[in-house]
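QUALITY CONTROL LOG
STEP: pairwise intake check
CHECKER ROLE: data steward
CRITERIA: each record must contain a sequence immediately followed by its structure tokens, with no blank fields

ENTRY 1 OF 2
RESULT FIELD BELOW
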Amino acid sequence: MTRPDPADPFGTAALREGILAAWSSSPTRLREDAATEADHVRAGYRDRVLTELAQNAADAAARAGVPGELRVWFADGRLHVANIGEPLDEGGVHALTALRSSNKTGAGSTVGRFGVGFTAVLSVSDDIEVRSRTGSLHFSAERTRAVLAERNLPEPESGVPALRLVWPTETPPATGSDTEVVLTLRPGVDPIALLDAFRSEAHDILLELPGLHTLVVADDEFTRHRRELDSGLREVRIGDRTWWEFTGVSARWLVPVVGGRVDPIRSDVLRAPTRSDEELSLPAIVVADVAMQPDRRRVLPGAHVENVARGYARFVAALPAEQRLDLVPLPGFARSEVDGRIREAILDELAAGAWLPAADGSADLVPDRAVALPGLTDELADVLDEVVPGLVIPELCGPRHASALSAVGVHRLGLARLAELLSGHERDPKWWNRLYEALTPLVVVDAVAAEELASLPVPLSDGRTVTGPRTAVLATQLQDLGPVSMPWVRLVHPDAAHPLLARLGAGTVTVEDLLADPALVAAVEDTDPDDLHQEGDLPAGELADVVLRLVPLVSPAAVPRELGALLLPDTHGDLVPADELLLPGAPLAEVLVEDAPFGTVDPSVVDRYGADALRAIGVGWGFTVLRAELPTGPDHDLPDEHLWWERLDDDPEVLVAVRDLDLVDDRRWSRALTLLAAEPATAEAIADPAGYTAWYLRTRASLDGRPLGHYRFADDTLFEGLLDPCTHPDASAFRSALAGTRIDDIELAQTLLHRLADDNRSPGPAAIVAAHDALAAAFSSGGLDPESVTLPNGVRSLSGVVVDAADALVPDRPWFAAAIPHDRLVTGGRGTAHALADVLDIAVASAVVDAEPVEHGRSSTWEREPAAVLAGIVAGVPPPRGVLALHDRLVVRCSGALTGEVEVPWWVDAAGTVHSTPIGLAAALTALATPDVRTEP
């Protein structure tokens, strides 16, 4: 075997001669070589200087079994690219000089199949050196052009083929390198821009070429660090940038990671292994083993690019659960035919694989068996665990992922469909409450959601489950009531009640509304007395139980009186309406008649529900009070109510009345009045003088055998001496039921008439006048019928003496009052003379007495008399016009029922002339100022 020449270890001289001989024998071959090389530079390997040199460096490192390292720098007008690894060998030299061959065909080759990529250096240089530990080479367009001239070979129009002829050189590679490529840059090539372009490619080259570990561009070093993750991914880090990498059957996949979360790319190209011109729209970088055309720009026709997708589902499954949908290719136009085929293959791979994380934490789901509920939360997923199988985690159910879910065929479950799925499910009311709480955020952010949930099931308090919140009502006061059945209303179960239901259309009711519901009243009225609870411990069945549990939640005044018909057991075991029962030991029982229609409620009912609840529905303790808003007539089952109603001018706004007063034993009214005064509700009722209760007590109650209305309050002196004071200790509480200023009933009128004629009583003048005034008003108004009373023989005069009615006179004209003796004078208030005379059947003075002044007096007028003017000022009335007859002493002569002469202070004669003494002027002026004084006092 011939030993190589140390000055030309690779036999470049023989290579040159062989090529030149071929060119000389066939000028066409020269032109073809020149054109092919020019095509590679202009098309296939444009802008790939660093890529192609990096591939060679990665191959050399792989063959040497060392981490690849590539250094690039610019010095002395030349670009230096040095690497470590297997040095240049003879096969490599042949590959460099041959446009159609490559030494990258053996098992030691790691990337690519063709060695023609070295022609990329010609895009920046016509003078190239390849320096290696085993020998160095020199390629030069200038030297090639000189050789062609020496051999009389024409220079092709496309230029000389600079990489066909090679010469040996003795320059070794840079220290620390195994191979160095030195490029003398062509004029016009900017080295700074070139190095900047290399820096921008550094990350891609290190990702694409696993054999290359470090790339140094000038002073910038880029080193790839790889770390295996527990998930099956590898973390790839270059500087401050990070990717997650997964190796599939036919490709490696990389996705950028920012802050621990994948950052899908928007567009890229197929890398096989370096960048091609096949544009992709995939969310991750793909470095694939795909058959490429010689220039590695395009995929070979017929290449099975679909194989690239194999294992993609495992790649996605290795990602954190909440990030997996980020790597699903979204619908859109493919950027190339290859892109469309790979995308379709990936979606098929994803559709068939189990990689969607399940909300219940079980194994990953296959898309066609998965369900996504938009707006799903952890709380909602927990509630729906057993109801909706196959739910994916909430993080993947948001609107951001809708397109990705659709792309892989995941069923999206709407709220309307969810409501349908929930129908027929039997769950504890608390489960429903949890569901409503979990659904609330969805309704708050989306108004349409409320309509979609219109058929959401709702559990009721009676155990039923109905469809749609709009058919049910909420009572939020019942949370602490416990299980309760309300068959008369579609009430949401207290344990299920939630504000969401109100937002979805459920009505809201208070406990007052529930108790006042006409359906409850009807149910109470329809209760069957034979409908006892099977265990015997619920009064009149469940209806009574729920009512008695609701009543404590409201004020007693809010409990409808109709609930008094609720049947409860008495001490004999019979069912009796509540308002016909008394509590054990009720003080009311002490004051009722012996045959009062009241029983005693079973003590066990009191123990179970409490006395307050029973009293609120009408079970008696003391007297009960009826309250009715806007009553319209006497239809409240009160004794003699119609008689009281007839006295009213207008209907009252509120009727407040004590019930069952007609059942009080007449001998026990004193104790009954004590009970009425002791309870605030009844005390309020009896305090209204115009109310029913005060009227009933005044006319029906009695003390010591006398009607209560025939007593006066101790401090009330109006009828003192005629009516006795009430000495009951609680008289102040029922003062309105005692005698007042008016006479309301015929019995009181009869009593006053008799006591006015009773010599054993000593009323004062004021009491006598007040009594006469009240009697006149009572009968003249039409309130009392004069024919209903029996008149005594005597009447009470102003002096207090009882006088025979035939001798009594009523001064119907004011000047007669001074002429009639006080022991015959009977009077009331001003304006009552004729009415009083009619009531007492006695005469008015003007009808039976004639009287005229004995003397004419001094004739004058009111305006001319100082004393008259001064009297007007004192009396507060202007002096009248007309004649005034003045007397020092005025005497009138009387005839008829009154005879003799009487001295009077003033008088009016038959002609209408006023006669007066100086002291009578003021009285005359005051009396004359009253209208119709001549005929009526």
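ENTRY 2 OF 2
RESULT FIELD BELOW
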Amino acid sequence: MSTDQPPFRDPRLPARERADDLLGRLTLDERVAMLHQFAPAVERLGLPAFRTGQEALHGVAWMGPATVFPQAVGLGATWNDDLVRRVGEAVGREVRAMRARDPRVGLNVWAPTVNLLRHPLWGRNEEGYSEDPHLTAAIATAYTRGLRGDHPTRWRTAPVLKHWLSHNNETDRDTSSASVRPRVLHEYELPAFRGPVRAGAVAGVMPAYNLVNGRPNHLSPLLSEQLRTWCGHDLVVCSDAGAPSNLADSQAYFADHEEATAAALRAGVDSFTDHGEDSSVITARVRGALDRGLLEEADVDAAVRRLLAMRCALGDLDPEPGPQDDAAFDTAGHRALAREAAEQAVVLLKNDGLLPLAEGVRVAVVGLLADECKLDWYSGALLHRSTPLDGLRERFGADRVTFAEGADRVRLRCPGGWLTDPGTGPGEDGDGTGDPAAAGALDPALLRGRTDLPPLEVRAEPAAGGEFALVDWGGGVLTLRAECGRYLSVADDGFLRASADQPGGWIVQETFELRPHGEGHLLWHRGTGRYLTVAADGARVAADGEEGTVFAVETVERGEDTVRAAAEGADVVVVVAGNDPHINGRETEDRTTLALPPQQDRLWRAAREANPRTALVLTSAYPYAVGDADAALPALLWTAHGGQAAGAALAAVLAGDVPPGGRLPQTWYASDADLPGLLDYDVIGSRTTYLYFDGTPLYPFGHGLSYTSFSYGGLTASHDGRTLTVRCTVANTGERTGDEVVQLYVRAVETAGPDLPRPHRALAGHRRIRLAPGASREVEFAVPLSEALGFWDVAHGRWTVAPGTYGVDVGASSTDLRAGATVRVGSEAPGPRPVGSIRAADYDEQRGTALVDLGRERGDAVAPAGEEEAELVFRDCGFGSGTASVTVEAAREEPGEAVVVLRAGDGAPVLLTVPSTGDRYAYTTVRAALPEPPEGTGDLRVTLRGSLRLARLGFGDPSSAESS
């Protein structure tokens, strides 16, 4: 290296030192410009342009063809940390290879998603790993280690975790607030992020769109109070797209954008993803905030320093390529790894002896996903493609495998004739105008539909091009596929064409609804929110004030009939059902039910009616409630959308060439009635996830069967005060090689302190092993005692391991526990709750409340969630020898009064009136004497009547018993 290079160019120096040197060379305008996602080049210093953000959830996305691995929830189903680390490594190397060809490919990758899958109706369920924080943290740590690489200072890519914090709803996602009590925060939400950050493999996080406890996540004080205390290097915070503008727009949290931008920067946001590639809006807001005194240059410098340190770690400012520039793309190893990951993601839910399939068997593979290899919003384009039909034909021979899709074939008749796709001439396929495959946009939301193909028209008589494959994906949401194989879609010009290879896009233009109208139906296009009409120049969406055309739907062929016919001639039927990841459950859209769509439900029933030897394969981004299928069919399997090798992988598992070893990463509930509200984030109070669910699930967390059997024995459990060590021996007692996922669970049996709700059991360790028939292996777990057995003690504001007895169990799922032991912990027992000053948010139980923001920057308060009175309960309060007065700190924005009613122990209720303070953040203190001072230890119940925010309450001596 040349000696005249400035220090920021020297890769031998620490990244922070290099960043400080460069920061001192930049003008204020240059520093401000770096706060936008698309940071411009600084030519006078030889700095290249840089952008934060490259989607890489399960392969490089949005940049064209790349290796496509199983969806994230499928990687979670492997329960295999080593495998996922290798997947991350392959993705990181493909990022480097693609960047060498196209500098628009970013090295700051926005992956993985570590939001916990607490609610299976969340539209983005496919993006997470598990409902469990331990498993999510372990898989995320593995993936980010692969993305980051092993070099101590040079990073292959810089992973950013999504989405901080408590984000599991697409409904009103930018305006809804998740009410997250301290125990849920510390025991459930934070550990999923903390694990990979502490491992040193994470470059930063992306805040979520929603609010937590009334405060936008982009202003979260936990970014500084928690996140940035977990590791020794600078962490970058990248905003989600458009979220900075939401602060003053949809959320109306601030009066103007300059104030909002300043607040986000002070809270810890470093890179602003807003207004696409146009950085001028954000930079103008920052300059305006500086001019108004809302920001200091030091606030800008802190953010830019973190961004520059990340760029130094990536080698972006190095004079030469470094040790992590190990690019590789679509190698034989990557292709084999994609198949291995897809194989290990398959979960055998039920098997009454139908599987594995025998050699020479005649197989009918049927269903809407039987010949599909579906992609999702965060997939790359396919380099290779294997559907279940492809895989089974390759494995058993094309002459032994028959196929029926099961879609209904229909004609659409209107007063002028039949709707028809005129198609193109032989060998023609349009000129590609508007074709997403021909575009190179960084954001696929910007891509437009094709306009080079002729629109649909009406012909007087049925003709070629007049039949359509109709699929109802649930809730009456339809797709229509023309005879040419393309889906009906609407482009920007409003015309209806058979132009899409698959449904997709930010706003899906390929979905419709048939709405009854008179003796026919109107065809409503969901993407535009308009009805279809037929005009002289072709079919198009209706203009304002224009009526839609009424269609009669004529069924040419029922899908059930084709499935039944295929099933009758086969030895075994494999029904492949599931979802299209762009329809009814995706980013921006939550699901409404766990039920399998009725059309697909009819297909498996038709197959079974014709042939009882029917297996149902659910290929989906989320769980279904399929109790009837479980009761009626001899075999069921689930796999997430498995990427480019999905079909070959499924065939290998069905044939027994590969042992099924996937395990469910989340609970499969039996019905919608088992679910809490989508916006109820209190997993403790709502008794949800396997940790607290009191009902009987259809399939429990961790469930998955094998073609062989395993025994567990020799369990020992001990601890030295710091580490819990558990050993057991697992043996393959069957006749086939198999994969077992050994799962370690812990539970509180009898502990000191108040009787608080604790998990039924919590995952503390897992290990996937492969054993030959008759083989055995000792499996050892060594886990931090405090993390495994502790809980957040709200009474004292700390992490605590209560003294007492704890159960230690190992087994094959959260309900299939094969061996157990107990350990005793002799730590100091927690004392009663101090009552001098109690944070209202530190309750033990609640009814009808919501946590809200105490102030714009930090702190939580409690408010009634609706118009009904609400209640808080504080257990085991130490009132001492007699407390004569009580103090309440509260705010009421509205005119009039609210009332707080307190009952301490067995004493009489005390009413305190809270007057209007005129502002939600203006708190007043109200004091009152206690006619019956409580003594000793007891519970405190607080009832809230009317609109108010309760910040604190406390008990004192008689001298403080006056009102203010």
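INTAKE CHECK: passed for both entries
DESCRIPTIVE NOTE, ENTRY 2: The CA atoms of residues 256 and 775 lie 67 Å apart.
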